[in-house]
Structure formats: C-alpha cells, structure tokens
Specification:
With 282 residues, the protein is mainly β. The chain contains no helices and 21 strands.
C-alpha cells in the first residue's frame, strides 16, 4: 500500500471495449494508459465490460480502503470495503442504488468479514461471510449455502463464482477439524454437493471463470502424485485433463460456453522447470 493507504481509497473500475477485428495472427494490440481518479496516484484494472472509468465512492466515512472483485455485463460491481478496525464488508454498486452493504450471515462483522467473490448477470452475488459460503439476491438477501461434512471449530466454506442459472461453485472443508478441502457445486434443487477429487485429498474451483452456463465446472485437484486440471460435468463427474510432460502438473484458469478450458501446465525440460499456457478442447 502507498503512503496514501491510510486515507480513503477510491474505487476504480477501468474498463474498455474489446474489438474483434478480422486479420492475420500477427495483428498488433494498442496499449492505452487509463490514468487514475482525481487525487489518486495509483490505479489497476482487474475486470472488463463495456463501460468507462467511474468513482464508486465508499460505504461510509470510516472506510479506509475499497477493492472491487467483480463486474457483470450490466455494469454492476461487487467488492470489499475495509474500515479502520480492519473489518471487511461486502458491497454491491449499481448506477441506480449506489453502493449498498450486503450484510453478514448473522451476527456482527468479524475479522473475516464479508468478501464477495463473484456475480452473475442477474445481479446475484456469492462469496464468504464469517467463514461460510453465501448467496445474496435482492429478493432473499444473504443466505448460508452450508458446508460439506460435519461442522467444527475450523470448518469453513466459500463460494467463488455463480453462473446465470444460479449455480454456485466454491470450496469447503469436509472434516470438523479442517484438513482436506473439496470443490462443491450448489443449486437450489440439489443444495451443496461434493465434486470429489482426482484421487488426492484436495480439489478447488478457484479459476477466474470456473463454471459456464451449462453447469460445467473446472479447477484443479490433487492426484496420487501431483495436481491436475479437471472438468466436471453432471454426466461424467470429474475428469482428469492431464498435464504436459509425463510428470507434469496443471491447473485450469477458466471455461467457456463451448466447454473449452484454459490454464497452465508445468513440466521439466532438461531438469529445468517450464510452465506453458494450455488449452483443453474436446
């Protein structure tokens, strides 16, 4: 954080229009400096839609910093506002309502706080509040999505993404005293279900876009000897996407509506570690 860190940090959403132009594979991209908001020295862009740069303000006068975490195609923004007590509160910003506090899963704000992680184009928000995965909608407010396995002193769950059908993915501990963590899929019809692993102890759907609107999920899972990217479908369960190299590892970064997965795979060439961007297609 800069020397301005103790002052209120204005939210910056830097977005641009992406133009698809027919041309050769060597076509060049132009780099543009998006600048900063008035009075601020730094800025960074994390998400993109079809709008421009705007100041979203703060939740209240005691908020010391704000960080957007997601933006949808309607220009709605979710993020985290941290106050002087280091308590994190989730917010939703729209052009009609401004910034609103999403609240918590019962009780006061704890040190863990409320951290939104994803939002769909219907304005439904997911994340974690006080160590539990939540779904927030304008109709229901914040609801607890539950946890895999028995609840204990160190058990937790957190939601990372939601598709436009309202299907939620995330991760959850499966034992009351911590230990293994598994990917979950939550729907209104099934509740929270365990997607399992590829033979190891842990799996996680922590990709930037880990679920598409067909309900296919991607992420990574430990195996008996490594960690591999996976795709999960309702028909086939969890499928190992493999890795480059005989003893390589891999993880998924996102999945599109065609079921194509992108990510990275690490392997060795002459003993030296190498990581390559990877595309998996059917």
């Amino acid at each position: 954080m800069t020397e301005r860190g103790e002052s209120v940090t204005k939210l910056l959403i830097s977005v641009a229009v992406a133009l698809l132009v027919a041309g050769p594979a060597s076509a060049q991209f132009k780099m543009a400096d998006l600048g900063t908001l008035p009075g601020d020295a730094d800025s960074a862009a994390r998400h993109i839609n079809n709008r421009g740069m705007i100041d979203l303000g703060t939740l209240d006068e005691i908020s010391s910093s704000n960080q957007p975490t997601a933006i949808n195609d309607r220009g709605q923004v979710v993020g985290v506002s941290v106050n002087a007590l280091s308590q994190a509160r989730g917010f939703l910003w729209t052009a009609d309502t401004g910034m609103i506090d999403l609240g918590t899963l019962g009780g006061p704000i704890s040190r863990l706080g409320t951290i939104p992680q994803g939002m769909n184009n219907r304005g439904e928000v997911v994340g974690q509040s006080n160590g539990r995965a939540f779904l927030w909608t304008a109709q229901t407010g914040m609801i607890d999505l539950g946890i895999l396995g028995q609840i204990g002193p160190t058990s937790f769950s957190e939601a990372s993404a939601i598709n436009d059908r309202g299907h939620v993915v995330g991760r959850s501990s499966i034992a009351p005293l911590g230990g293994p963590v598994h990917t979950f899929l939550w729907t209104a019809e099934t509740g929270m279900i365990d997607l399992g692993t590829l033979g190891g102890l842990t799996s996680s759907a922590n990709a930037l876009r880990p679920i598409n609107n067909r309900g296919e999920v991607t992420g990574f899972s430990t195996t008996a000897s490594s960690a591999h990217a996976f795709i999960w479908t309702d028909q086939n369960g969890m499928i190992d996407l493999g890795a480059l190299g005989a003893d390589g590892s891999s993880h998924a970064g996102g999945i599109n509506e065609l079921g194509q997965v992108v990510g990275a795979s690490s392997f060795r060439i002459d003993g030296s570690p190498i990581t390559h961007a990877t595309l998996w297609t059917r």
